[in-house]
Amino acid sequence: MRFSDVLPTLPLEALVQQSLDTSEETVQRVIARGRATNLIEFAALISPAAQPHLEALAGASMRLTQKHFGKTIRMFAPLYLSNECINICTYCGFSRHNQIPRITTPLPQVVDETRKLTRKGFRALLLVAGEHPKYVSNGYVAEVIRELLPIMPNIGIELGPLETEAYRSIVDAGAENLICYQESYHPETYASLHPAGPKKHFNFRLDTPERGYEAGFKRVGIGPLFGLHNWRYEALATAAHGLHLLRHCWRAQLSVALPRMRPAAGTWTPNPEFHMFDRDLVQAIAAFRLLLPHAAISLSTREHPALRNGLVRLGVTHMSAGSSTEPGGYSTYDEEQWVQTKAAQEGEQFHISDTRSPHVVAEMIRQQGYEPVWKDYDLSLARGA
What we know:
The chain is an alpha/beta fold.
């Protein structure tokens, strides 16, 4: 049974209401046990009643994270390949109606940018692109992966959803990690945000991690995009999705990311009703840790430096650093200082918040007694070479 069959059966609205009605006694009982074992207990941990107990919740999250991951943070870099896109997503800078420079990075330039990232320490890369059959889904990504593997041992993808067979060619090329954000798990909200293009097919996107798993990806990643709908609803749906994948895709490592909206090209304006405050994000991350103790939790440069510093010890396991969200963007970075030399990045997907260089972020992690891990996978191990 696919998650698209499961989601309509879940009482998510009732769980949101149950979260709002949770008592402090229930919250304290779950935190004291150090684990949430179901969606009802997860709802308690993300409740308003849990907010006065955030320090205790974060402490429980920290202990579980150290138990299963040690005092480590895995470093990775996103590398945007193309902002060509046939979808209309009202909140996304790559949306096809936005008047931005359209770029698909030539392969030699991708290689040059990857070498640049390796000189900053990175050994894990996340390839990101818009959804376009002419520029992206035409074998280009598989060719990029084959070319990069000799210099970048760990490659993941974040692309428009594909069929299982198409994913197999990417796995065969050497990718091991698939990430697909559902953006919103609320069907009506999703439909209003994606009026045109293949991304409007809610269920096809929802089942993407399972198709990727069947194709052979060793890690599958999910997440909402907070700011599009009620954050407690999105967190509950993401949690349910994670539990489903643990049952049905058990040979793969599950990762969860909890990105929040950032300013981007276009006319979309956030609904204040759906704003997620820093405190809410900390609470959500800790709650996910107590429900999914073995899942990787990723934190991107969407978040501001002070918050990222604080979250190193509270449940996250993966962090990006020094990121560009524009195809070809790293080509114009000053390599020594790792600062953008262009006045404007008109082709970017969104503005990042933490602009610190990779070595500054790595040093911040060390100062907290944690080790930045640049490499934890090599394809030769998986292939028995």
